[in-house]
Design brief:
The chain is of the alpha+beta class. The chain has two domains: 145 residues, Fructose-1,6-Bisphosphatase, subunit A, domain 1 (Fructose-1,6-Bisphosphatase, Chain A, domain 1), CATH 3.30.540; 116 residues, D-Maltodextrin-Binding Protein, domain 2 (3-Layer(aba) Sandwich). The protein contains eight helices and 14 strands. The strands form three sheets. Strands 3-4-5-6-7-8-9 form a seven-stranded mixed sheet, sandwiched between helices. Helix 6 packs parallel to helix 7. It starts with 5 loop residues before the first helix and ends with a helix. It binds adenosine-2'-monophosphate and calcium ion (CA). Calcium ion binds next to strand 4. Calcium ion (CA) binds next to strand 4. Its cofactor is Mg(2+). Keywords: Hydrolase, Magnesium, Metal-binding. GO terms for molecular function: inositol monophosphate 1-phosphatase activity; metal ion binding. Its EC number is 3.1.3.25.
Length: 275
């Protein structure tokens, strides 16, 4: 149980997300790609780094002793596994731009994802779409909200009525494996969307726009905030084997709960042996 006031934590996350969102709107479609990370599909721009800096400063001003696990600075701490293994009491998990490929291309669909966990348990999640100014937020046991209004997962009860989200993760192997899931599911669901931001896909599951989402080989910052959103909106989040979501999960399945078993069964059959 967190001892601090989670309303204050949420306000800090909101301020940080809005500051990053301002930069994203300003630079959309005209950033310079300054680097690739794990491979040629994995872009990073100066704006990703500036967004992470402004988020870090905002968090540090309010909570100077907290640890911040951010996508653009994680390498200097030895990687996500090392940071999670250190069991920080108060941990923020930050993706300054989730959907950098869209951002670079000028496609207005990406998000800022900020989560706060106390002793490894997610307590606050915020996913912000800076172009539509849609702010998805959740506090553990407090429900999930879109711009302050309560949201809930969809009521579809079968795969055939479901619109599913997934992605093309970075890396040849990851892409090949995840695509097997798409090939299996495409004829069995209403349709599949790959919108380019894992965090927003999970937020869309939380508000019922998508029925479910899966993707393999993700990193904690792609999922942490969105996972709490789905849980607090009445949905279910597990790994691909059906184990409950934790910050260590890489292969995630998040749904309205009603289709969870059916989707897991298909994905396990199509992909699990090859992950
Ligand atoms: P990003 O824009 O923050 O990199 C698209 O399938 C999703 O995969 C996006 O959420 C994207 O986030 C994420 N992604 C891109 N490269 C990745 C990598 N090397 N490892 C894990 N996730 C990645
Ligand atoms: Ca990112």
């Amino acid at each position: 149980m967190a001892t601090r006031d989670l309303t204050v934590v949420l306000q800090v996350a909101e301020r940080a997300a809005e500051a990053a969102g301002e930069l994203i709107r300003q630079w959309s479609g005209r950033p310079e790609v300054v680097d690739t990370k794990s491979g040629p599909h994995d872009l990073v721009t100066e704006v990703d780094r500036r967004c992470e800096s402004v988020i870090r400063e905002t968090i540090r001003d309010a909570f100077p002793d907290d640890f911040i696990l951010g996508e653009e600075t994680v390498a200097q701490y030895g990687g996500a596994e090392v940071v999670l293994g250190a069991e920080h009491e108060d941990l923020w998990v930050v993706d300054p731009i989730d959907g950098t490929t869209n951002f670079v291309a000028g496609i207005p669909f990406c998000s800022v994802s900020i989560a706060y966990a106390h002793r490894g348990i997610l307590e606050v999640g915020m996913v912000y779409h800076p172009y539509l100014k849609e702010q998805f937020s959740a506090v553990r046991s407090g429900g999930a909200f879109l711009n302050g209004r309560p949201i809930r997962v969809s009521s579809a009860s079968t795969l055939s009525e479901s619109v599913l989200g997934t992605g093309f993760p970075s890396g040849e192997h990851a892409r090949a494996v995840n695509t097997k899931g798409m090939v299996d599911l495409a004829p069995r669901c209403r349709n599949i969307r790959t919108l380019g931001s894992a965090a927003l896909h999970l937020a869309y599951v939380a508000c019922g726009r998508l029925t479910g989402f899966w993707e393999t080989h993700l990193n904690p910052w792609d999922m942490a905030a969105g996972a709490l959103l789905v849980q607090e909106a009445g949905g279910q989040v597990t790994d691909i084997e059906g184990r409950p979501y934790t910050l260590e999960v890489r292969h995630v399945v998040g749904t309205n709960g009603l289709i969870h078993g059916e989707l897991l069964g298909r994905l396990k059959g199509a992909m699990a042996a090859e992950i």
